[in-house]
Amino acid sequence: MRALIAIAGAALVAAACGKGSKPAAPAAPPGAARPAVPAGPAEYTVIIKSTWTKATHPFEYPSGAHFSGMIGASHNAKYSIFAIGRRPTPGLERLSEEGKHSPLDTEIQSAIDQGNALMKFESGGLKNWKDSMVATVRVDAAHTLVDVVNMVAPSPDWFTGATNVNLAENGAWVARRTLTLPAYDSGGDDGKTYKAPDRDTNPKKPTTRASTRHFVINGRVKPVATVTFVRKAS
Q: What's the average model confidence in pLDDT over 34-48?
């Protein structure tokens, strides 16, 4: 009899323990691996060549056509000089309207001071399309992206350039990268022709790709330049 009571008691205890128990939680999946980045810094030669000529862009092609000097920066994902759909900074607006590097150079320096940019680079302007604009940029594991811009001149507020060009790939620095560059409208002026009088836009409009007949021919965007990044030997 005592044996039966002991067995029954054990069964009740087991049932009580089982009633409140929960199945073991599945093991947490391992954390997602971070993209590999290069171990050390690298330097690149930045080369901008014009493809904007009277033959390629015949509509109202202006006399005195030229590019302002380029200005750019290496940076991380928290900074960029421009973005489609974003209103221009005062620095980008002045660059696109007058070709001046100030105050864009100050904006870049602020990003450097905050740790979001590594360095600024610049060049002189370009008038002879047989030549190129050339500068040097340094990148590192924390700043693998590069932006560069220059004014398409004369124009109300048109510029060309590239944003968020990633020079790291599969844990290494790319040896060479070339991009074709369209013209952009910074959103700072309402002019519609190369030599339109100043028509300052307030409030500023978002930056867009230039969509006038000057740069869109037979429904196709005609690039105005190329930029090439060539890694220097370490």
A: 90
Q: What is the pTM of this model?
A: 0.84
Residue 36 belongs to some domain of the structure = no
Residue 185 pairs with which residues in a beta bridge?
158, 208
2 in any annotated domain: no
* Domains identified in the chain, total number: 1
* Cα Rg, the chain, nearest whole Å: 29
Using H for helix, E for strand and C for coil, what is the string for 14-47? HHHHHHHCCCCCCCCCCCCCCCCCCCCCEEEEEE
User: How far is 211 from 214, CA to CA, in rounded Å?
Assistant: 8
CATH label of the domain that carries residue 154: 2.60.40.2130
Q: How confident is the model at residue 63 (pLDDT cuts 50, 70, 90)?
A: very high
Q: Does 217 or 37 have the greater pLDDT score?
A: 217
